[in-house]
């Protein structure tokens, strides 16, 4: 599997002080894993990746001229947006779909997936953030995800949502700017809570005190090139405005709602 790279870094101007992250950008698997015993159709579903996010992240990175880190593997293999000790790190069942290639699993295989995929991805995120902070200022980190229009029988009304823990420095102005045009419904910690111990924002932003926000866009709105272009056009000036605020380039540690930080 030496030819399988578990991340992609989209190069940009690190001096701008902004980093984009897309944990679930891709639905790829190394050839040795086949399809994990799932039908090919499973890899076009949200259980495999965040639909539309790769295209949106690439377009925003190009428009803004900033670096981005893209997850290069399907979250069905191992979820990069989970802590190493999270029981949902490698899913046996995902939204009703049994994943035969994930159960049963020997500890050696669990450890291998951490070493070969999860950890290299997070090292890439860490290196990118460090490079963007070379001037001594904290970079603004924006994580991009997408969510399904429905959950079971519930139609999710939000067009976008911002997830966060307790550091609201970037969240409050982001919510205000998203809502300002008045043409979309924006959720605040919807459709799920953003405080998750060990996830990407916890690990790379909460612990070191870096300003950040996680933005979710509803998948049906960015499922094609036209939708991606429209949302990049909406988000780019908002991200640029956020990046001009001095308070979003300061290190400040906030306590996590999940409990004390490790060590």
Automatic annotation (TrEMBL):
Keyword Transcription: no
Domain of life of the native organism: Bacteria
Organism: Neorhizobium lilium
Gene3D superfamilies reported in the protein's UniProt record: Zn-dependent exopeptidases (3.40.630.40)
Protein name as annotated: N-formylglutamate amidohydrolase
Lineage: Bacteria, Pseudomonadati, Pseudomonadota, Alphaproteobacteria, Hyphomicrobiales
TM ranges: none
GO molecular function: hydrolase activity
InterPro entries assigned to the protein according to its UniProt record, in alphabetical order: N-FG_amidohydro, UCP029730
Keywords: Hydrolase
């Amino acid at each position: 599997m030496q030819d399988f790279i578990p991340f992609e870094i989209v190069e940009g101007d690190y001096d701008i002080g902004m980093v984009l992250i897309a944990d679930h950008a891709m639905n790829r698997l190394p050839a040795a894993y086949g399809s994990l015993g799932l039908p090919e159709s499973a890899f076009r579903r949200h259980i495999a990746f965040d639909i539309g996010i790769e295209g949106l992240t690439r377009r925003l990175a190009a428009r803004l001229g900033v670096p981005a880190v893209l997850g290069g593997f399907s979250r069905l293999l191992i979820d990069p947006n989970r802590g190493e000790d999270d029981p949902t790190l490698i899913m046996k069942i995902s939204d009703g779909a049994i994943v035969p290639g994930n159960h049963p699993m020997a500890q050696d295989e669990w450890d291998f997936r951490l070493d070969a995929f999860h950890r290299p991805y997070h090292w890439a995120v860490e290196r990118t953030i460090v490079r963007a902070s070379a001037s001594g200022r904290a970079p603004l980190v924006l994580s991009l995800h997408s969510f399904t229009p429905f959950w079971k029988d519930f139609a999710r009304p939000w067009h976008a949502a911002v997830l966060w823990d307790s550091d609201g420095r970037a969240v409050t102005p982001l919510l205000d700017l998203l809502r300002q045009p008045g043409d979309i419904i924006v959720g605040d910690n919807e459709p799920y809570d953003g405080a998750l111990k060990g996830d990407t924002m916890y690990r790379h932003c909460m612990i070191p005190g870096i300003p950040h926000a996680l933005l979710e866009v509803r998948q049906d709105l960015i499922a094609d090139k036209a939708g991606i272009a429209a949302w990049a056009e909406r988000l780019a000036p908002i991200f640029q405005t956020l990046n001009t605020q001095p308070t979003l380039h300061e290190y400040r540690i906030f306590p996590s709602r999940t409990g004390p930080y490790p060590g």
